[in-house]
Amino acid sequence: METVISGVIVLCMFYQGGIIEHTYIQDQRMSSCLKAKRQVERSVNPENVRMQCGKVDAIIEDDNGRKRVVKIIKDKYDSSGYTKWNHQTKKEILLPDN
Q: What is the number of structural domains in the chain?
């Protein structure tokens, strides 16, 4: 079952200015997110991707007792070109490229 949750902590991976990956932090502690961020940064080329922890509004799915992010609805990052969730119609809105 999918649920819209406000203010969940996720680890976001950015490539060429857009979010390409997002990971739900199971214990919802910023320190756990930062630890995961350091581990990932050691294994990827930091010139190509950027990692950042933050609170977002997201659609969360319970997958056999573990929660995972299905879609980020609202974030604090610049996500031009990404879709946003319309709470009234319960549908995605495709944002135009700037």
A: 1
Cα separation of 94 and 9, whole Å? 24
Please determine, for residue 71, whether its predicted confidence score (pLDDT) is greater than 50: yes
Alpha-carbon gap, residue 3 to 79, rounded angstroms: 22
**Domain membership of residue 27 as a residue range:** 2-94
Q: Are 80 and 98 in contact (CB under 8 A)?
A: yes
Higher pLDDT, 84 or 31: 31
Other beta carbons within 10 angstroms of residue 68's beta carbon come to 15
Is pTM beyond 0.90? Reply is no
> Which one-letter DSSP state was computed for residue 76?
S
**CB-based contact 52:45 (threshold 8 Å):** no
d(CA 21, CA 53): 12
C-alpha 79/C-alpha 84 separation (Å) is 9
